[in-house]
Design brief:
single chain; alpha/beta; two-stranded parallel sheet
Amino acid sequence: MDEPFLSIIIPAHNEERRLPRALEQIDRFLQAWGRPAEVVVVENGSTDRTAAVVEAFAQDHPYVRLIRDPRRGKGRAVRQGMLAARGRYRYICDADLSTPIEEVVKFLPPLQEGFDIAIGSREAPGARRIGEPLYRRLIGRAFNTIVRLLALPGFQDTQCGFKMFRAEAAEDLFRVQRLDGMSFDVEVLFIARLRGYRIAEVPVTWYFNPESRVRLFRDSLNMFRELLLIHWNRWKGAYAQSEPATASTADPG
């Protein structure tokens, strides 16, 4: 198979109900878009029919691949998908498509020419949040403040589940990224900044999903612990660069 222009990586834990709709929407978009693409679904530790759903869809859609891992963890699933992908650009996409798949074009050249990583932002100028309760917005902003203080100053939204990486950046960063939990994307961006990659925040339209799996208080505590672990990993040299990256050395600011 020739190198796809785009890889869409979907981490999927117990997603048998939401995945069929998401895969159908992605298929309609790709058919209209016309660029060569692949979809890599990483099923991790599901107890439902997630894998069977993907396998059934892949029978008639050969650009869809399934990776199975019995161990849970969104960070682990994304890492596996990113390193298994073949696309020139590699896009993390949540199974609920809270940001419509059509918005993927915002993350690609020519709109993001010159950047190595483009991250979906619900806070950048022009972004829209639809249907989100105020209390969730406030908790999210509080956590982002902690992220900016402890790890990533300057970024308005690091937790939106939609992010694009150039292939070279993805392979460099995800080979050293370690966290299996929800803070994996903070860790990846932290390493990217250490290595001089250029990162753009892309305003997106984001729809609140009342069936979200995020447990606000418990997950926030775990993520705070993982922020401290990121600094511990850096101190131990876990993110040391063995050879020069191919990215720009400009400060992403």
